[in-house]
């Protein structure tokens, strides 16, 4: 049985490639940097847990020495705490193709339509540099450049597209005339498996996508219809200065670990359009690619799709609300320290113990309010919020049970805060 190794195998595109290669009879091994994420997607797959941007050429020679096919489906949209574009798109590719030099393996590089050395974003420029490394190598290489990839799984740009199409009543128009082509993720994966089998030869570059081009406005309307929502009552043109502001905010959040599809690179890419020329793929005898209508027909929208589309919009608002709530609680505790102490001292708690309790509460509030904004700590912060709130209600009921009947509801208001923390913790999934 032939062996295939897929880099980025638990990602949106990588996972589809794993399934397509398995269907073609390959024994597939996945490469990814998170064992937890890997096991969620393919619990029975053989996994190599590595950060590809840090893996040495000597390690790649050992890991890929018996591979017949190597598929590079890894990538990142923008630099951040977790990602370095040059390291992932160029440095890692240099070491991989060097390790494969002189072997019989076919190396399939999944790039992106529109890459060039003078592209407007670092994503496209580094992808172009990585492609150039592949083309100059001594491997049996193939480079496939898909357009906008859609599928039943919503992640990144495809998740944002669903969310923007699901806004209630009023829609926002952004880059309405930007040209867009699409491809079903399964068509992309089938193309990878087809090319990897040697049916089309090697040493070629091909764009992958449907032949028809849509404007972004048309695509958004079609996705809204696919979700089952009626036409918007009105549409508002979103000014570019506001989009730039949103992109800058998303970039800053990227340094806290949030890989938002609203980052500057994504917005610039969308503004430029996402199109390719699939003629070379067709001329080589490549598999047919479905149109947008056929793609959407193949992934019918369900209640889960509609719920996800709305929840995707609400999650960042919910996280922001939690952060503001806890940070303000801590700041108000600092500003009203004596009043906070008096709640306990008036109920026969010693001044020293009351001061320690108030200070502890202030520190916990500020730490949790800040921690929920950091991606790798956000779920733990939610768990901390639930525990601290529970302790607050427990000890508060013991020491000051009368506050349950207070007209301002200091205890009652904690209950929806707990529920909001539970809601955010359950929705914090990368894949």
TrEMBL record:
List all membrane-crossing ranges.
Answer: 312-337, 349-374, 381-401, 407-428
InterPro entries linked: ComplexI_NDUFA9_subunit (IPR051207), DoxX-like (IPR025695), NAD(P)-bd_dom (IPR016040), NAD(P)-bd_dom_sf (IPR036291)
**Pfam families to which the protein is assigned, alphabetical:** DoxX_3, NAD_binding_10
Which stretches make up the NAD(P)-binding domain? Answer: 8-150
Has the keyword Transport been applied to this entry? no
Q: Does the keyword Transmembrane apply?
A: yes
Q: Which UniProt keywords apply?
A: Membrane, Transmembrane, Transmembrane helix
Show the PANTHER family listed in the entry. Answer: NADH DEHYDROGENASE [UBIQUINONE] 1 ALPHA SUBCOMPLEX SUBUNIT 9, MITOCHONDRIAL (PTHR12126:SF11), NADH-UBIQUINONE OXIDOREDUCTASE 39 KDA SUBUNIT-RELATED (PTHR12126)
Q: What is this protein called?
A: SDR family oxidoreductase
Origin organism is: Roseibium porphyridii
């Amino acid at each position: 049985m032939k062996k295939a190794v897929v880099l980025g195998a638990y990602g949106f595109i990588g996972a589809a490639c794993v399934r397509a290669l398995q269907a073609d009879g390959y024994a597939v091994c996945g490469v990814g940097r998170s064992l937890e994420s890997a096991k969620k997607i393919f619990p029975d797959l053989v996994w190599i847990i590595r950060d590809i941007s840090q893996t040495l050429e000597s390690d790649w020679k050992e890991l890929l020495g018996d591979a017949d096919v190597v598929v590079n489906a890894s990538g990142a949209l923008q630099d951040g705490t977790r990602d370095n574009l040059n390291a992932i798109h160029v440095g890692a590719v240099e070491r991989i193709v060097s390790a494969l030099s002189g072997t019989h393996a076919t190396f399939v590089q999944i790039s992106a339509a529109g890459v060039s050395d003078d592209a407007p974003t670092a994503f496209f420029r580094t992808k172009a540099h990585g492609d150039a490394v592949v083309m100059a190598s001594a491997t049996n290489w193939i480079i496939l450049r898909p357009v906008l990839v859609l599928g039943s799984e919503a992640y990144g740009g495809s998740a944002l597209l669903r969310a923007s199409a699901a806004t209630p009543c009023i829609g926002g128009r952004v880059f309405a005339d930007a040209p867009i082509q699409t491809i079903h993720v399964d068509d992309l994966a089938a193309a990878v498996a087809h090319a990897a089998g040697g049916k089309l030869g090697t040493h070629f570059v091909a764009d992958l996508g449907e032949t028809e081009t849509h404007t972004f406005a048309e695509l958004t309307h079609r996705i809204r219809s696919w979700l089952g929502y009626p036409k918007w009552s009105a549409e508002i043109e979103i000014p570019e200065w506001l989009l730039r502001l949103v992109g800058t905010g998303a970039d800053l959040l990227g340094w806290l670990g949030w890989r938002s599809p609203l980052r500057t690179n994504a917005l610039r890419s969308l503004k430029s359009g996402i199109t390719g020329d699939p003629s070379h793929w067709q001329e080589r005898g490549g598999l047919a690619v479905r149109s947008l209508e056929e793609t959407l027909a193949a992934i019918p929208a369900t209640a889960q799709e509609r719920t996800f589309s709305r929840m995707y919009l609400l999650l960042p608002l919910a996280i922001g609300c939690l952060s503001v709530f806890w940070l303000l609680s801590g700041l108000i505790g600092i500003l009203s320290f004596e009043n906070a102490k008096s709640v306990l001292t008036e109920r026969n708690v010693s001044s020293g113990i009351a001061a320690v309790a108030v200070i502890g509460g202030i520190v916990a509030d500020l730490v949790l309010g800040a921690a929920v904004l950091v991606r790798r700590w956000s779920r733990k912060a939610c768990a901390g919020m639930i525990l601290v709130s529970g302790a607050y209600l427990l000890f508060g009921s013991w020491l000051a049970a009368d506050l349950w009947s207070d007209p301002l509801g200091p205890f009652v208001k904690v209950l929806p805060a707990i529920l909001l923390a539970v809601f955010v913790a359950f929705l914090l999934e990368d894949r």
